[in-house]
Amino acid sequence: MLDPTRLRLLREFAEHGTMTAVGEVCGMTSSAVSQQLATLEREARVALFERAGRRVRLTAEGRRLVRHAHIVLNAMDAAEEDLRSASTPRGPVRVACFATAAVHRLLPATAAARTRHPGLHVIVYELEPREAVEALRDGGCDLAITFTYSLIPEEPPPGVTRRSLAAEPIMIAFPVGHPAATGEVDLRRLREESWIAGSRGTTDHEMLNRACALAGFQPNVIHTADDYALVLRMVRAGLGAALVPELVATVVGVPDGVVLRPVSTIEITRTTHALFRTVTPAVSAVLELLGD
């Protein structure tokens, strides 16, 4: 079998005409070039070179092999380029994501992708975690950004890989002046409190129920809302207290008249995850950007 490296040297000889010139182009000594081409001649089992005075030139068979070398080497170069192209992040990546993570994590990642990976196009769908997981399972997205609460452990569906991105504490939102809104809050002191919770059937609602159960009481849920900006304004209006992730302060902003306080008696955290079924170069690039 003819060696591709030696075929490249033959092609260079056909272009430059001397062993010395080939050596300069390829970073080799002329003696090393001569030895490699002599080996190629033995592999080809025909005379590739002939003497022309003090110089060496290609024979008819040598010129014929040069033509084949061009075809073979061009095909090899094209194959390498195709493989490099296949590993380059490109094309659309559909990402289903809940709102606060979209603002805090996905949108910056999307902006960074334009600079780092110009061929990559991130498509954003705002979906709550359960909807996002369903979209991933049904092929409606390539990547799902979800969250879980420490009080409600959940495993990813079969065939889905989950990667944790960040964890944050859950805080209690009070109106300014609330007697319990000083330092860390003992949840057991709030058994008489009115509460604002997520809609019934959501993990937010269940998280409040479980936290209060661990504190020894059932929460008196008066109002329900799923928009954190609305929840915080309801707190400011004196409609009740609420449990909210710490990230809400960064993404939504805490309005005047509202304070966030940590919980002292029970550790409650929310962890943001990236879920995916298949790792492509594009999905891998988005995962890397989400982790920055």
Tell me how many strands there are: 11
Distance between the termini: 48 Å
Assigned CATH architecture of the largest domain: 3-Layer(aba) Sandwich
Count of domain modules: 2
Q: Tell me the fraction of residues in β-strands, as a range.
A: 15-25%
Give me the CATH fold name of the largest domain.
Answer: D-Maltodextrin-Binding Protein, domain 2
Poorly predicted spans: none
Radius of gyration: 33 Å
Total helical segments: 10
Provide key terms for this protein.
24% strand; 43% helix; Arc Repressor Mutant, subunit A; rod-shaped; 292 residues; D-Maltodextrin-Binding Protein, domain 2; 10 helices; 2 domains; alpha/beta; seven-stranded mixed sheet
SSE inventory with pairings:
Layout: H1 4-16, H2 19-26, H3 30-44, E1 49-52, E2 55-58, H4 60-86, E3 91-97, H5 99-116, E4 120-126, H6 129-137, E5 143-149, E6 161-175, E7 194-197, H7 203-214, E8 220-224, H8 228-236, E9 242-245, H9 247-251, E10 258-262, E11 269-276, H10 281-291
Helix pairs in contact: 1-2, 1-3, 1-4, 2-3, 5-10
Detailed description of the structure:
The protein has 292 residues and is α/β, with parallel strands linked by helices. It folds into two domains: 4-86, Arc Repressor Mutant, subunit A (Orthogonal Bundle), CATH 1.10.10.10; 91-273, D-Maltodextrin-Binding Protein, domain 2 (3-Layer(aba) Sandwich). The chain contains ten helices and eleven strands. It has helices at residues 4-16, 19-26, 30-44, 60-86, 99-116, 129-137, 203-214, 228-236, 247-251, 281-291; strands at residues 49-52, 55-58, 91-97, 120-126, 143-149, 161-175, 194-197, 220-224, 242-245, 258-262, 269-276. The strands form three sheets. Strands 3, 4, 5, 6, 9, 10 and 11 form a seven-stranded mixed sheet that branches. Strand 3, helix 5 and strand 4 form a beta-alpha-beta unit. Helix 1 (4-16) crosses helix 4. The longest helix has 27 residues, at 60-86. The radius of gyration is 33 Å and the shape is rod-shaped. The mean pLDDT is 90.
